[in-house]
TrEMBL record:
Stretches of the chain forming a coiled coil according to its record: none
Species this chain originates from: Sulfitobacter aestuariivivens
Gene3D superfamilies tied to this protein: Phosphatidylinositol (PI) phosphodiesterase
One of the protein's GO biological processes: lipid metabolic process
GO terms for MF: phosphoric diester hydrolase activity
Taxonomy, superkingdom: Bacteria
Protein name: GP-PDE domain-containing protein
Alphabetized UniProt keyword annotations: Membrane, Transmembrane, Transmembrane helix
Length: 296
């Protein structure tokens, strides 16, 4: 017959082992799926930041406004009409309606020509092998994605019915750029265009074009090739542009120097959606002297 004390000791040791193993298993990574590690809110995509945005940057704080004549940050420019359901570059009626409803009032819109010369809202025709569509093809291709394509005339009517709205033009097509102002005036009036339209220009020569003499203009440098901050400063200070727009890659290197020379000129920044839409990045560029952003 076994010693009763031996039996009791074995039983107690068994209980200790079971309890210890249970505690270890509860804390073990093997059981991590049982631990609630859910974030309090769904995380957004991490911005593609690099070393230039360091811990020295102030916490992200960006206050938007809709006024071109304000130097301080940040003019809110809805790029390509603004995003719609997370999708950039649509230039669609749905994007315009959505972003106007959010309180945005300044809309940068891309213009492209159809094969018959009609001017429509589109970034370019790269997805069609650079072949210009008919107006019907343009509308159909957008409607297949649940979007409404617009002509320049339809955009003008939309703007006229939206108090406070402003248009910033953009186009990759020189033939459209040359005809844009006259088409806008024909669809509305010279007064409407002067009050609600800002034409983006792409060269020093275009700033001084006679047909743009009385028109509000922004110089955007993305088509100007190799250009230095000194060259930009000289052009800007001797012209009647109301603002300057630069790519974010250029801004990281040269915005601070530009701001020292151009103390009273608004400087706006554009870039890829994955970067320019980040509040942290906008805060960083604001600290360098940006006055606003083209963003989704």
């Amino acid at each position: 017959m076994k010693n009763p004390y031996y039996t009791l000791t074995v039983a107690l040791l068994s209980i200790v082992i079971v309890i210890s193993f249970g505690f270890w298993f509860w804390k073990s990574p093997l059981n991590a799926d049982c631990i609630d590690v859910s974030p309090t809110s769904a995380p957004g995509p991490a911005p593609e930041m690099d070393a230039v945005v360091s811990s020295e940057v102030d916490p992200p704080y960006v206050r938007y406004h809709n006024e071109f004549d304000r130097l301080e940050c940040c003019l809110d420019i809805a790029h390509a009409g603004g995003a719609y359901l997370g999708q950039p570059y649509t230039n669609s009626l749905e994007a315009l309606e959505r972003n106007y409803g959010l309180g945005r009032r300044v809309f940068e819109v891309d213009f492209a020509p159809t094969c018959a010369g009609q001017i429509v809202l589109a970034h370019d025709w790269k997805n069609r092998g650079r072949v210009r569509p008919t107006l019907n093809e343009f509308r159909t291709e957008l409607s297949d994605h649940g979007l409404t394509g617009m002509t320049l005339q339809e955009l003008v009517a939309w703007l006229a019915a939206r108090p406070g709205s402003k248009l910033v033009t953009d186009t990759k097509y020189p033939d459209v750029q040359l005809a844009l102002l006259s088409h806008l005036e024909a669809a509305s009036s010279k007064q409407f265009v002067r009050d609600q339209v800002v034409i983006q220009v792409y060269s020093e020569a275009e700033i001084d074009a006679p047909y743009l003499r009385d028109q509000a203009k922004i110089l955007t440098i993305y088509k100007m090739g190799r250009i230095t901050p000194e060259m930009i400063g000289t052009i800007a200070m001797s012209s009647d542009i109301i603002a300057l727009t630069i790519p974010e890659t250029f801004a990281k290197k040269h915005l601070a120097a530009l701001r020292k020379d151009l103390t009273t000129l608004p400087i706006y920044v554009h870039g890829s959606p994955s970067r320019i839409n980040s509040l942290e990045y906008q805060s960083f560029l604001n600290n360098l002297g940006a006055s606003g952003f083209y963003h989704e």
